[in-house]
Amino acid sequence: MRSIPSISFDVNHLTLLPGLYVPAVDEVGATSVKTIDIRLCRPYADPVLTGEIAHTLEHVLATGLRRVDSGKIKVLYFGPMGCMTGFYLLLAGNFSDREAGSFIAEGTKIAAALPDVPAKNRRQCGNCETLRTMADVRPMLDRILKMAEKVVGSGTFDRYPD
Ligand SMILES: [Zn+2]
Is residue 159 part of a domain? Predict the structure, then answer.
């Protein structure tokens, strides 16, 4: 198993801007696993995500990303960062940055078009009464879509600040 070590603790969070970054690429057998940092808030500058908004985005985007019809890319994990300034998305497969950007854009569009927050019930979620509405998370979905479209346009993920 060959890995490029995770560098997220080496990132200067004081100059970090919202964007899509790749803090780690791990080779698992013949498959590449990319960790993607979906950074939504500037640390110590923007308000962090509330637990309710992060939880709702998790339900909505996990559903959208897993519904993308892709033979190349598989979602391994999607969830909020403990610091509440963004999310981690783990994608498996051999794909380019542009293909990953396109995948995230597509998943975000599917998420934004959902009529309701998925799995908003006690059987499927451990804290469903705190979930907000689609309207509450659409502005954030719009920001993620713009960040993904930027990756598609440039062909590369954003680079962490030096
Ligand atoms: Zn839940």
Answer: no
The answer to the question of residue 160 being in a domain is no
Ligand 1 centroid–CA 73 distance in Å is: 24
> Cα(155) to centroid of ligand 1, in Å?
33
Query: The domain containing residue 74 runs over which residues?
Result: 3-154
CA distance 81 to 11: 15
β-bridge mates for residue 77, sequence order = 90
Q: How far is the CA of 59 from the centre of ligand 1 (A)?
A: 6
Ligand 1 centroid–CA 116 distance in Å is 14
Return per-residue pLDDT of the chain as tens, 162 residues: 555 555 577 888 999 999 999 999 999 999 999 999 999 999 999 999 999 999 999 999 999 999 999 989 999 999 999 999 999 999 999 999 999 999 999 999 999 999 999 999 999 999 999 999 999 999 999 999 999 999 999 999 999 988
Q: What's 125's domain CATH number?
A: 3.30.1360.80
